[in-house]
Amino acid sequence: MDRTASGEDVVLALHTYEAAAKERLPGPVWDFFAGGSGTESMLTAGRDALDRIRLRPRCLVDVSRCDPGTELLGARLAAPLGIAPMAYHRLAHPEGEVATARAAGDAGALLTVSMFASRTLEDIAAAATGPLWLQLYWLRRRDLMADLIRRAEAAGFRALVLTVDAPRVAFRPRDAANGFAVPSGIRAVNLAAEVMAASHGSRAGESAIARHSAEQFDSSVTWDDLAWLHEVSSLPLVLKGVLTGDDARLAVEHGVSGLVVSNHGGRQLDFARSAPDCLTEVVDAVAGGCRVVLDGGIRYGADIAKALCLGADAVMIGRPALWGLAHSGTEGVTGVLRLLMGEFEEVMALMGAPTVADFGRSGIATP
Ligand SMILES: Cc1cc2nc3c(=O)[nH]c(=O)nc-3n(C[C@H](O)[C@H](O)[C@H](O)COP(=O)(O)O)c2cc1C
Ligand SMILES: CC(C)CC(=O)C(=O)O
């Protein structure tokens, strides 16, 4: 939090965190965070879809007390807000995911930890006071996935999030142009070094991230393989990156507890339908059979309200958490989360919706 000359706190707008992160981070790291796949058409698609949605407030409702609190897969949250899985938080701040976990706990938000976290699951869990989920890519080395899942269970993680929109990492022009590789001092410490080796070592014109995924991700997995995950762990399973009603129905049939409707922050399929545009179809298809979360372009408290009106149970932010981290570690991430929660609480009052259950389809208009 910045302070004025008189010592008062100044609430920083999200773009202030973004500008500070851009200034502080090395160019190729900024590009890795900010960039998208292909033509980068999906970087703005989700944001544009959210901007098109307009709110329809009700009036003369008692909003003297608004409660943004909610429950998600057994966890109490201060608001329907979480942090999406993102690899290598130490690229943004030396404390990495430990700083993020502290902030999520302080703010009462969910944190989804990437399989490629740069701090150990145990250190992250020790710093966390709120719920943690573990994100997985499906590796060829299933033994390593099983080992990671066992460690997550022992550390108290509450759900597994399998990312299903990335059988391989898509072509990302900025990373290719920069020959982006993860710097050798920053590692996906929860996985064996030999399995992560391809992520390091820059080569002109090639992204090491893409090279690594082509080498290590198992792109042959299908719905039938989810049985293996259910065998290995009894934690609730969430699929991240589902964009159609057909896949949403299949997910429920396969015992999935939650879905993240997501375009992977514009980093995977170019020219896809935007996640907010897919939300209603997915919510209708699951018909209450599992929980639904939206991510991609969430930048204002009003976006949380719009997602709830479309039927989501919660939203997750990606890049804004990294901006907060780059700005000032734990304090910055807490600032980002509290900014969004404060805006959301105000939207609740102005919408005449004092609880999260008061948001429904009649609360929005889409052209
Ligand atoms: C730098 C970066 C790293 C990411 N790493 C992962 C990851 O490891 N696993 C994953 O499922 N998604 C990953 N994502 C995608 C996010 O989970 C999320 O879907 C996206 O960032 C949300 O959009 P937003 O950044 O516009 O809020 C990453 C995104 C960024 C920007
Ligand atoms: C290490 C990468 C696979 C993470 C990432 O950049 C992403 O998922 O977008």
- Summed over residues and divided by their number, the pLDDT gives a mean of 96
How many domains in all? 1
Rounded Rg: 20 Å
By CATH reckoning, the class would read: Alpha Beta
What structural category arises from helix and sheet content?
A: alpha/beta
| Number of E strands | 14
Shape: globular
Q: Taking strands numbered 1, 2, ... along the chain, how are they ordered across the largest sheet?
A: 6-7-8-9-10-11-12-13
Domain FMN hydroxy acid dehydrogenase: 6-367
Keywords: Flavoprotein, FMN, Oxidoreductase
InterPro entries: Aldolase_TIM, Alpha-hydoxy_acid_DH_FMN, FMN-dep_DH, FMN_HAD, FMN_hydac_DH_AS
GO molecular function, one term: FMN binding
Question: Outline of this structure?
Answer:
Its cofactor is FMN. This protein has helices at 14-24, 27-34, 42-52, 97-107, 121-127, 142-155, 173-178, 193-196, 208-216, 226-232, 245-253, 275-286, 301-309, 319-351, and strands spanning 2-3, 9-10, 54-55, 70-72, 75-77, 81-83, 110-113, 132-136, 159-163, 237-240, 258-261, 291-295, 314-317, 364-365. By secondary structure, the chain is of the alpha/beta class.
Write the layout of secondary structure elements.
Blueprint: E1 2-3, E2 9-10, H1 14-24, H2 27-34, H3 42-52, E3 54-55, E4 70-72, E5 75-77, E6 81-83, H4 97-107, E7 110-113, H5 121-127, E8 132-136, H6 142-155, E9 159-163, H7 173-178, H8 193-196, H9 208-216, H10 226-232, E10 237-240, H11 245-253, E11 258-261, H12 275-286, E12 291-295, H13 301-309, E13 314-317, H14 319-351, E14 364-365
Parallel strand pairs: 6-7, 6-13, 7-8, 8-9, 9-10, 10-11, 11-12, 12-13
Antiparallel strand pairs: 1-2, 3-14, 4-5
Helix pairs in contact: 1-14, 4-5, 4-14, 11-12, 13-14
Flavin mononucleotide (FMN) is lined by residues 32-33, 84-87, 114, 116, 135, 163, 240, 262, 264-265, 267, 295-298, 317-319.
Domain FMN hydroxy acid dehydrogenase: 6-367
Pfam family, one: FMN_dh
Cofactor: FMN
